[in-house]
Amino acid sequence: MDVFEKTEKYVMKTYNRYPVSFVKGEGCWLYDDKGRKYLDMLAGIAVCNLGHCHPRVSEAVCEQAKRLIHVSNLFHIETQAELARLICENSFGDKVFFCNSGAEANEGAIKLARRYGTEKREDKYEIVAFRQSFHGRTMAAVSVTGQGKYSEGFGPMLSGVKFADFNDLSSVESVISERTAGIIVEPVQGEGGVIPAEGEFLKGLREIADSVDAVLIFDEVQTGIGRTGKLFAYQHYGVEPDVMTLAKALGNGVPIGAIVANEKAADVLKPGLHASTFGGNPLSTAAGIAVMEEVLKPGFLEEVEEKGSYLKKRLEEIVEEFPNLLDGVRGKGLMLGVVCKVSCGDIVMTALERGLIINCTAGNVLRFVPPLIITKEEMDYGLEILRGVLKEHAD
Fold this sequence. Notes:
Blueprint: H1 3-10, E1 22-26, E2 29-32, E3 37-40, H2 43-46, H3 55-67, H4 78-89, E4 95-99, H5 102-120, E5 126-130, H6 139-143, E6 161-164, H7 169-173, E7 180-185, E8 188-189, E9 195-196, H8 199-211, E10 215-219, E11 243-246, E12 257-261, H9 263-266, H10 282-295, H11 300-321, E13 326-332, E14 335-340, H12 345-353, E15 356-357, E16 359-361, E17 365-368, H13 376-394
Parallel strand pairs: 3-15, 5-6, 5-7, 7-10, 10-11
Antiparallel strand pairs: 1-2, 2-3, 4-12, 8-9, 11-12, 13-14, 14-17, 16-17
């Protein structure tokens, strides 16, 4: 029985999987069980920012696994404290809570906002979120996700959630009130189609949150850890949130999530109010330390911005070449989306068959979130595959 048959027989079918099984990864490349090589310009969906099996991260995980994998949060954990220091000293944050995923981080951030609100007044519990957003698959995270397909059949959702239009302050003002405890927003909507927030929009959210004493939450699960060319996407805008959620690239593939909070919000979750058995364990935080130290090396983030500009320019050239199929490029850094005039699922599948891994988000946006270590030569290689695929679909 091969891996495809075992998956079909024993694994819940919660994914429509491609007929490929990878057995090895190195840098920006994946290798399947038949020895075929693929250029990964998806990075495990913005997870492997340092590429697959980065030597520094792999070494940190292996060395930590030999010493100590797990200990309860009833005790002090050296790697957890050090990773928290690295995050706080390189962000707006004063304190960090660690968990295991982006959905958990957003779940905890929603709890934090509600606790903050109800300590002010009994009916201050409402959360403002945005249409076309995505914040995870747990019940609270789905409740603040502004795409109905993710909550269909799981109702009723969390009460007290109001939705506004992304990049539209008047829409936010129409739902905000003294009952608002928190506002949650992605600086770049990922699953919504790689749509960056406008600077004035985020500045306006900061002012609105302050006016009603609400917690402003930036979901940086996908944008964090260098993805947009800054360590965190909020740094592009000159706007600091009260809370930021992280996951994905923080462990470069090792499961980890984090809630980063400023002084206003850092002490809301007191002992007994929130917890995570595996959150901040020695193994995941050792990986996180290695990731942060690599991304913080001099010149690393500047190179990401340069590579992002290069990739965007090359993609714009391809858009001009196929005006009947494509309609523009948007995003920040190495988080880019090519808007298609048609559904792009078939394009993604054909690209995979040709040895290029990308994906389709929002139904018609080709998403490019390659490892941040990708070279221009590797980008050119992948774009030549894409060009051939588009030419085939245009004919």
